[in-house]
User: Which sequence fits this backbone?
């Protein structure tokens, strides 16, 4: 995680397309548990028409997998049209994620 103090909010650690994806995932999961595939995530970004958000599907997959490794999302393989697909669900809420970032920064600063 790279922290850019020149920016605000989630933009301090994420690129614009990553912010958009995470905000969307958290928003759709406010009331019920809803997963998103990498294909759906990619289509979501493409539909915006915003050049800053339109990234390759590979970039989307890599980011989602990074969030799984970071413990922010979880990936479950589910059967669907055309075979099995990885479906991403939030493992942390937005607030829990923000606390995770703060804790990570504080922990790193303690090692100075």
Assistant:
């Amino acid at each position: 995680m790279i922290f850019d103090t020149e920016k605000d909010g989630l933009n301090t650690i994420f690129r614009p397309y990553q912010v958009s994806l995470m905000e969307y995932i958290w928003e759709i999961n406010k009331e019920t548990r809803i997963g998103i595939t990498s294909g759906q995530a990619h289509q979501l970004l493409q539909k915006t028409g915003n050049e800053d958000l339109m990234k390759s599907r590979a970039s989307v997959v890599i980011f989602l997998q990074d969030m799984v490794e970071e413990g922010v999302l979880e990936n479950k393989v589910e059967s669907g049209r055309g075979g099995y697909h990885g479906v991403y669900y939030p493992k942390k809420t937005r607030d829990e994620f923000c606390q995770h970032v703060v804790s990570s920064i504080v922990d790193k600063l303690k090692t100075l």
About this structure: The CA atoms of residues 10 and 19 lie 6 Å apart. The two ends are 17 Å apart (CA to CA). The beta strands are 36-37, 73-80, 83-90. The chain has four helices and three strands.
